[in-house]
């Protein structure tokens, strides 16, 4: 049997949006193979229809429609690299046809659409995972161990994350992430996904009590978010903030502060160096005698890796798929849960932005008082 | 004449609250001398009344009342180290008697009280300065030069600062900063003063358009702020956040992000090392080929110093006083302006906290609709 001959998980990719990294990761993974690519995009004259060339990567099959790829019984798992507005339809369809599903982040435009995908996966008993790579990096595991250390870090109190990058004029005009019909969440769904995800990760996936957008959201002409932020407040006096943007210099900062120690990373979404990722910890810092300074200063910890984080992700996903396919293991529900909770908070930030969140309530209080006064005058008339 | 024999500025210190550092700085400065200390505090049995001993520091005169020190015509300048609630009275009184005034931070409980001090200084033609030391460190000058570099940093877009330290149970019970009658601003006036000051410093002392407290303010039993945060939004889509606390591990983080570069420091309020202060810059960061990482990572810049920042502050203040006293130069109005703007924003954060700032306006909107409905029903009755 062919399956026994090649034990690797056969991936099919739907769409051509930034698939290069994942396609290469699949190619370089020992547990997965790129079986097929399907594209329905409009192509320029120098690109063959139905195929988006990825340098150094070859798929066994190329399809001109997503339907055809999903009809291919050899495909074990699909990676949905379509604009976000198309995720729900195609990821759910893939799941209904028994394909395991990995979806580019943000996995959906809102929780309702994501739930459609997740329920389709549950119904078919297939694995769901969104393609948030940094969660699979060994550094992330090491940082989490520090955050969980009651002696060194204690209880989490404050956190700030910032994921920003200054996009090109061409991106601002053409990228799917600036188009209301394709990826209406803009910077919130893209860079903000990492910010919110990192805060929930640090909070052990507890959900925040309040989600309040910061003032100063920037929209493009079509109303898509180019820059925004929010505060997330949790039980136990843990308060976090984040800022995400397409309009400022590249940052991927995370600072988490506990009752006893602090954690910092400047590149948490993607390490500066694919072979070596650093994070910084400090515990029990206090003033030196005579206030001559304070100590300890943050200590660097470097995690060496032999693979890019995207490869770790593909291998983790493939391993789960293998377990389900070969050993009858149940899908790991941790991954859809992480996605759904992150998406829920994205929804709440969006709602708070739409409602003008973070605005002072002062004017409304004035209005309420005025109206009460009017009622009293009214009643006096009645008497 | 005695004045010619000793050209140093003669300092008098009012009060004994954390005067050790400043007393030593005056002693080690070549431009100032500690002439007198006045204390009216209640003392424990093992402390002589009217004198708080500062190891290794000797004042020429010790007074048992502030009045006596202010009557001493030899005193050029006073450092007001009283609880914040007493600043306005004594700093203004010192100014009216022709003494130059340096006030411990926060300089006052609110802008009104600070303005009383500043106006008394203006009326007497004396120098005013609050004792925010980090503004006088050479590193601060170097960091500002980077922020002002249009090529390397560009226009400021986001900033987050965090000043926190976990105080002892004894501090939580006894320190002036937890007492509503002494320093009702608590962590906001102490740690938050640095956060707000650093954001205004980065914003070239423009004032924010909106000031909104973050949810999750923590108060002690007496209603004093132990932990809080806010967002400050400026013209030009610059949005900043800060968090200050007496309840979490020590941090003094500043991250400022511009359109072209970013600036970081982990110890901006007080360098880890008094001889060497670092900050980190990065400009033009972008993804590497194949998304294998990104570059450049932040570059460390170290500023070596031969003095503590408190000495730089005392020398800057003494130099201004000398200019006024000997050369008829006008007081430098930059310093009261910085203090007043910082205090104004402290006031606004406090107001936003008192008003439940950061809360969603949703419930109020519902209330307004309800009340309008009631009015309409009312009018129907009238008809």
Automatic annotation (TrEMBL), chains A, B:
Coiled coil (residue ranges): none
Question: Which GO molecular function entries does the Swiss-Prot or TrEMBL record give?
Answer: nucleotide binding
InterPro entries in UniProt: Gfo/Idh/MocA-like_OxRdtase_N, GFO_IDH_MocA-like_dom, NAD(P)-bd_dom_sf
* Protein's name according to its UniProt entry: Gfo/Idh/MocA-like oxidoreductase N-terminal domain-containing protein
Which part of the chain is the GFO/IDH/MocA-like oxidoreductase domain?
A: 149-264
Bilayer-crossing regions: 364-382
List residues of the Gfo/Idh/MocA-like oxidoreductase N-terminal domain. Answer: 9-129
**Keywords in alphabetical order:** Membrane, Transmembrane, Transmembrane helix
